[in-house]
Design brief:
With about 500 residues, the chain is mainly α. Helices cover about 60% and strands about 5% of the residues.
Length: about 500
């Protein structure tokens, strides 16, 4: 294969990766590795494709080979550090960052990267050490100044954090992330202090800057088409569909899998809190927003377009469970597996087609609180998260997701339970016992002190910092102080408030 053809094939693989078509990317990259097995870039991206397919051992092996081929390349080491982090291989991640620091002793980026991973694992003092190193190298580094304020916020030093963030905003930072992130962070602090109007002003400013980074309207149009398709599909199915599916795909023909439950709902409805409580049970293995369903079931079924025959469904069942096993340090098969993932709520019909025995927990929260809480979130921009840039789009996203739920919960023979965030906050143990019993388990004392059990453990949800705290009630009825800003979306939310019992 000549150089021109090689580069064209490599570009094709990168395009597949960009659209999360990991199967085709993997196929092309394997062909390229046969021709050039010592190409660091091909190895790095082959690892990405493998990780996307849930083959984390292969991913780590490919990245290690790439590292050995270019051990003194700090840019590569930085990239590898972030890639290892993406599959929760935290020791390998930090080792790459430290190696990059050793090559460039005054480099800021690897120190920032280590600090971020430590903060996400609630190791704040260690994170602070690396940030202080950054500031000693360059006292005006924008990332370090921002992250110093983040750590102050995490340590409840609100005045110090606010002062640093205001100084940073006045200085007009150039770093694309810091430009909007410092405003998001300041909005959170202002909300805590009761400065609600200024908090909203900061959020509007932050979102205005995010909008300049991508074609948000075009991304939103992609989402709208997807939402229309999954809502139309759910509505097209009869209330007896589970009986029909079970008749055509009886238990005797299904690949046996561990006990499985899905924990869904709209983002910011208390899914993370519930996952942490249930995951503290010794007989439960809870997964926090993994790509398992999206990559092993949803994307493969979309791309193949194959009819869901018995053989096809069983193949998807096996691949999904294998993906979860790859994400576990030990074999989880003897435990109840809980996949907590708000956005895949939209695809409940496919969940139930592939996993007819699935137990479904639906986390509910006052829709008005959900909308406000989502508006405060600083999320990476993608097709779904593009909705979080305006209150109106968040309300539409809420309606899209919950419309599917309101249809599916009427299906006959469906094992489901709704649980309200407000009930968990007010009465953790009784509500926790009710939910745990639904899953076929007895309440365990560790569940009541869930926040103590999770220190030092990475949580993928944007609200990862909340899991180290006891339950608090300040988020209940939070929407009332922002009611004037919600005037345009209250009519959209009213049917859902009524359906879920919120006056």
């Amino acid at each position: 294969m000549d150089a021109t053809k090689f580069e064209k094939r490599f570009e094709t693989a990168l395009q597949f990766l960009a659209t999360e078509n990991f199967s085709d990317a993997n196929r092309v990259l394997e062909q390229l590795l046969e021709k050039r097995p010592r190409h660091p870039g091909v190895l790095l991206n082959y690892g990405c494709a493998s990780a996307g397919l849930g083959k984390f051992d292969l991913a780590a092996e490919a990245w290690d080979k790439a590292r050995r081929l270019a051990p003194k390349n700090p840019r590569l080491l930085l990239d590898l550090g972030h890639l290892h982090e993406s599959i929760n291989n935290m020791e390998a991640s930090r080792d790459c960052f430290r190696s990059a620091m050793a090559i460039e002793p005054n480099a800021i980026d690897p120190r920032i990267s280590i600090a971020v991973t430590l903060e996400k694992n609630h190791r704040l003092a260690e994170a602070r050490h690396f940030i202080e190193e950054c500031l000693s190298i360059d006292a005006k580094d924008e990332q370090a100044c921002y992250f110093s304020a983040v750590l102050d916020h995490r340590e409840n030093k609100l005045e110090e954090a606010e002062c640093k963030l205001r100084d940073l905003i006045v200085a007009e930072p150039k770093h694309p992330y810091v430009v909007y992130a410092c405003r998001y962070e300041l909005a959170q602090i202002l909300d805590r202090k009761g400065c609600f109007d200024e908090a909203m002003l900061m959020l509007v400013e932050a979102k205005k800057r995010v909008r300049t980074l991508a074609e948000v309207e075009e991304i939103g149009a992609q989402y709208d088409e997807q939402a229309r398709l999954y809502n139309d599909y759910a509505k097209s199915l009869s209330r007896d569909i589970l009986h029909d599916w079970s008749k055509s795909f009886p238990e005797s023909r299904r690949t046996v899998i561990p006990r499985l439950a899905f924990l869904g709902g709209h983002p910011r409805s208390g899914t993370t809190l519930l996952e942490q409580i249930l995951g503290s049970h010794p007989q439960v293995k809870a997964y926090d927003e993994t790509p398992a369903f999206g990559q092993s079931v949803l994307s493969k079924q979309r791309r193949s377009g194959q009819k869901l025959s018995h053989q096809r469904i069983n193949a998807l069942r096996r691949e999904y469970i294998q993906f979860l096993r790859q994400m576990s340090a030990s074999n989880p098969d003897e435990k109840l597996l809980i996949d907590k993932n708000p956005s895949p709520t939209a695809f409940l019909p496919l969940w139930l087609r592939v996993f007819p025995e699935l137990h479904v927990l639906m986390a509910l929260r006052d829709p008005r609180d959900v909308i406000i809480s989502c508006y405060f979130q600083n999320l990476p921009l993608n097709v779904i998260n593009s909705n979080f840039l305006s209150l109106e789009r968040i309300a539409k996203h809420y309606a899209d997701l919950m419309n599917v739920w309101l249809v599916v919960r009427e299906w006959k023979g469906f094992s489901w339970l709704e649980t309200r965030y407000e009930d968990i906050v007010a009465n953790l143990k009784p509500e926790g016992q009710r939910v745990t019993k639904f899953l076929g388990l007895e309440w365990h004392e560790d569940q009541e002190s869930f926040y103590k059990n999770k220190r030092g453990v990475k949580v993928n949800s944007p609200t990862y910092h909340d899991v180290t705290q006891p339950i608090y009630g300040r988020s209940v009825n939070r929407w009332r102080v922002y009611e004037k800003y919600l005037s345009s979306v209250l009519p959209i939310l009213e049917p859902y408030c009524r359906a879920f019992g919120y006056s």
